[in-house]
């Protein structure tokens, strides 16, 4: 599961537009997506035509220390493969309410860890500030997309965001990948061309090749409460966000389990009879274990995954051909493999991940 924060403390740079339309583009490709609206303005919620009469609880209740509401309790299905965790103006009070609370910056990450539903991508729409909400998003995420519009002030203040990302990395002890995304680009204007060159020179390889062009269709679809994928598939906006989703998939796809020589980005299930390498991404975990048919479902039998750094845990097992049900045990919590689509229910009705090793291998 990839968790991507859309962040820039400058307003009007296309954060919400990107959050909505990237989420919709992923879901169109068959990816299961949860969009978390972490902006008290609630623009992502409004932009998906989810009005306040459609929900009673929102992200304020999830992050508040005064309620027992979890992320699972507020999720609203929006369309096929796309769910929303809504927000409204109440969320603006959360920083004051959490003042002095221990681990207040980890409340979003904790709720994501407790999700019962499985997603390929979680997209977080951040507010235009570097307060406690954005810090929660940065701690919870594995990647950050920084939308930058083609204006005179586009790069002004970006260093502050990058410094904040570095601070979070130092405290959390894992790497946050980030890339800039050029938005609102008008190729007819020489000024826009110069700004794009400056942005790409500044970020170098940490800038997406995809550029989001300025088009009225993106504004129109927002006013109608739907993403560009449902509004106009012949528009530049549709083309650009589909290209962005494909570029993100190629750049930041996470591993399931892999052979030793396979690169991190290219990790795929290793269906070999002699050696299987299981991988699990859990940057905040203190211990990750493996339990399944191969060890009588006992995580105590020394099947502990090794912390490889950057949040990646790994374990090699020698297995005979056949089918094996299994789960990961993360700090005592049983988890199915979020990246393995093969799942079965056991005799008690619990869902397990399923590994198939081909006899011919």
UniProtKB/TrEMBL annotation:
Highest taxon above the source species: Bacteria
Gene3D superfamilies reported for this sequence: Immunoglobulins (2.60.40.10), P-loop containing nucleotide triphosphate hydrolases (3.40.50.300)
Domain AMP-activated protein kinase glycogen-binding, chain residue ranges per copy: 281-359
Stretches assigned to the AAA domain: 1-174
Listed PANTHER family: P-LOOP CONTAINING NUCLEOSIDE TRIPHOSPHATE HYDROLASE, PARA FAMILY PROTEIN CT_582
Name this polypeptide is given: AAA domain-containing protein
The organism's taxonomic lineage, starting at the top: Bacteria, Candidatus Schekmaniibacteriota
């Amino acid at each position: 599961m990839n968790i991507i924060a859309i962040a820039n403390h400058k307003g009007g740079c296309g954060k919400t537009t990107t959050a909505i339309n990237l989420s919709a583009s992923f879901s169109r490709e068959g990816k299961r997506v949860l969009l978390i609206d972490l902006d008290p303005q609630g623009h992502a919620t409004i932009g998906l035509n989810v009005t306040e009469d459609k929900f009673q609880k929102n992200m304020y209740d999830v992050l508040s220390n005064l309620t027992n509401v979890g992320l699972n309790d507020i999720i609203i299905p929006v369309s096929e493969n796309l769910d929303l965790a809504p927000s409204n103006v109440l969320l603006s009070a959360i920083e004051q309410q959490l003042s002095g609370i221990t681990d207040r910056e980890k409340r979003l990450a904790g709720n994501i860890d407790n999700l019962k539903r499985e997603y390929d991508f979680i997209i977080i729409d951040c507010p235009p500030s570097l307060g406690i909400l954005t810090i929660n998003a940065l701690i919870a995420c594995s990647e950050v997309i920084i939308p930058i519009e083609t204006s005179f002030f586009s790069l002004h203040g970006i260093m502050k965001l990058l410094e904040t990302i570095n601070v979070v990395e130092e405290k959390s002890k894992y790497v946050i990948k980030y890339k800039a995304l050029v938005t609102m680009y008008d190729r007819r204007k020489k000024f826009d061309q110069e700004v794009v060159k400056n942005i790409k020179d500044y970020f170098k390889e940490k800038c997406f090749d995809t550029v989001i062009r300025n088009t009225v269709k993106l504004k129109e679809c927002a006013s109608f409460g739907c993403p560009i994928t449902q509004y106009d598939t012949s528009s530049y906006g549709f083309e650009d966000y589909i290209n962005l989703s494909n570029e993100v998939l190629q750049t930041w796809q996470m591993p399931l389990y892999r052979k030793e020589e396979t690169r991190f980005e290219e990790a795929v299930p290793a269906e070999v009879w002699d050696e299987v390498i299981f991988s699990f991404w859990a940057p905040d975990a203190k211990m990750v274990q493996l339990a399944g048919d191969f060890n009588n479902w006992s995580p105590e039998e020394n099947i502990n995954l090794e912390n490889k750094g950057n949040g990646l845990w790994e374990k090699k097992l020698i297995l005979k051909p056949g089918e094996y049900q299994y789960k990961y045990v993360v700090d005592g919590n049983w988890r199915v493999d979020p990246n393995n689509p093969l799942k079965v229910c056991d005799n008690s009705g619990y869902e397990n991940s399923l590994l198939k090793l081909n006899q011919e291998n």
